[in-house]
Specification:
The protein is of the alpha/beta class. Helices cover about 35% and strands about 15% of the residues. The chain contains 18 helices and 18 strands. A hairpin with a 6-residue loop joins strand 14 and strand 15. Helix 5 crosses helix 8, helix 6 packs antiparallel against helix 8 and helix 13 crosses helix 14. The longest helix is centred in the last third of the chain and has 20 residues.
């Protein structure tokens, strides 16, 4: 699709990004999209490769390659190129529930699998997607899709993150009566409180929620299923229940001094910051959390980077980010060929901001914490760290990261944020519904299925597959909706 010679004629161009020292003055999104004419040229770069890996969504080498939603990428790119924006929206809408979310926070699996990577840079599909959906909103094409007929069937969705919202949207449009339960004070789950506002402004979520409410979806906040309402009550009142509670058990760092004050899980820190901003209508930021402090972030993933960017905005004195694994290579290794996900060094927005403010990259590789040191008031003030090396376990044969003797070091740390990933679903929910779980505490189902060990109870998203991406959560929510619909109606066109 696109222009046959477009990939040869036009260079990849993406949104303009505000300079780090400018954007850290607030918590607003900082990418300035291309104008329509320039965006059309990016659509022109799609090369009609014949085998569109970009939309494959398959697992290669244990990692996803291409879009898990199977978005019709070459078709939408071509429609962007020709300026058929409404048609592009209708095409995107066939496979995608919330392109306004993924076009902001997705790592662009489609672009990583783009054939243009073989000899150049990929098509900027992610930004084409954003241009499509934002044009659709601006033109009034995104309207409530209210079902003409109601089936009389009732469904409870527990959790309002991307998987829960996707499942709710699909099932409501099918004509079922859907109620979404959220334990927090606002709808959105991970989208609301797990992703900082500068990556995904919360007005973007609210815009979609208004549409879903107009379509007939009911939202219930401040209701913790398994605590405020029993599983038995839900199962009695609703024909089907879908558990979409996320992988919300954060992985802890069990070392001496862990009980010191000033040590938080990353998700709790990020939620507090976002909630303070929202509660004050962005007139107040919790600067007291990090201002003038030496911040230590443990974990090198996306959440760790979000903690770095947030801490910089809150006026941290310094930021150090620890990563257990070695630094990735700058270029693809021979063992990591296209169209596998490229395992290469990436410097994200938070790290860019830390470099601009402090003059160096905050990341320290192959390093972990061995002890937290408290002051006389029981607050963390220092951390003992040690270098790591890769070594084979003689018993299991697996490679492990082990401490390097003589590399111990003490660094200042007034605020510690643990961003070491998540272990799985929370036990009180799975116990309440008596569903089987895997050894990693994810809810167990048959392969490629979504019904749990308890009839009538389904699951989707991180609670099902483990910690993953927003785009995977949306896919799981849509597929779980189809499974629920089939169980209720005997067939499904979802």
């Amino acid at each position: 699709m696109g222009k046959p010679t477009g990939f040869l004629e036009y260079n990849r161009e993406t949104a303009k990004v505000l300079p780090p020292k400018v954007r850290i003055a607030n918590f607003k999104e900082f990418r300035i999209p291309l104008n329509k004419e320039k965006q059309k040229l990016q659509g022109a770069r799609c090369m009609a490769c014949g085998v569109p890996f970009c939309q494959a969504g398959m697992m290669i080498g244990g990692m996803a390659s291409g879009c898990p939603l199977h978005n019709l990428v070459p078709e939408t790119n071509d429609l962007v190129f020709t300026g058929n924006w409404k048609q592009a929206f209708l095409r995107l809408n066939k496979t995608h529930s919330f392109p306004e979310f993924t076009s902001r926070v997705c790592p662009a699996l489609c672009e990583a699998a783009c054939t243009c990577n073989l000899n150049g840079e990929p098509v900027s599909t992610k930004e084409n997607e954003r241009a499509i959906i934002e044009t659709a909103y601006a033109e009034g094409w995104v309207v409530p899709q209210i079902p003409k007929v109601r089936t009389g069937k009732t469904i409870a969705v527990v959790g309002s993150g991307p998987s829960g919202l996707a499942a709710a949207q699909q099932l409501n449009r099918r004509g079922h009566n859907v109620t979404v339960f959220e334990r927090s004070d606002r709808i959105g789950g991970l989208l609301r409180y797990g992703i900082p506002n500068m990556k995904l402004e919360k007005t973007v979520i609210d815009r979609r929620l208004k549409l879903m409410e107009a379509e007939g979806v009911k939202f219930v906040t401040n209701t913790n299923v398994g605590v405020d309402i029993t599983a038995e009550e839900l199962l009695k009142k609703y024909d089907r229940v879908i558990l979409c509670c996320g992988a919300s058990n954060p992985r802890d760092i069990k070392v001496p001094g862990r009980d010191a004050k000033g040590i938080y899980f990353a998700v709790d820190f990020l939620k507090k910051v976002t909630k303070t901003l929202l509660d004050s209508d962005f007139t107040k930021a919790p600067y007291e959390e990090a201002k003038g402090k030496n911040v230590l972030v443990i974990g090198g993933g996306d959440t760790g980077n979000d903690c770095v960017g947030t801490s910089v905005r809150l006026g941290a004195k310094s930021v150090t980010q620890l990563e257990m694994m070695p630094m990735p290579p700058a270029q693809r290794a021979a063992s990591n060929p296209w169209p596998e996900w490229p395992k290469v060094l990436k410097t994200d927005y938070g790290q860019e901001e830390a470099i601009a403010v402090f003059g160096h990259d905050p990341r320290v590789y192959q390093t972990t914490v061995t002890e937290f040191i408290k002051d006389k008031n029981g607050k963390v003030c220092q951390a003992k760290i040690v270098k790591l090396k890769s070594e084979k376990d003689p018993k299991t044969g697996r490679m492990m990261m082990v401490p390097v003797e003589g590399t111990e070091e003490v660094i200042p740390a007034d605020l510690v944020l643990i961003a070491a990933g998540f272990l799985g679903s929370q036990k009180y929910v799975t116990d309440a519904f008596k569903v089987a779980t895997t050894p990693r505490t994810n809810v167990e189902t048959k392969p490629d299925a979504y019904e749990t060990s308890v009839p009538g109870v389904f699951t989707a998203g991180d609670m099902h597959r483990g910690q993953s991406l927003v785009v995977w959560a949306i896919r799981e929510g849509r597929e779980a909706a189809k499974a629920v619909d089939e169980s209720l109606m005997g067939y499904s066109y979802l």
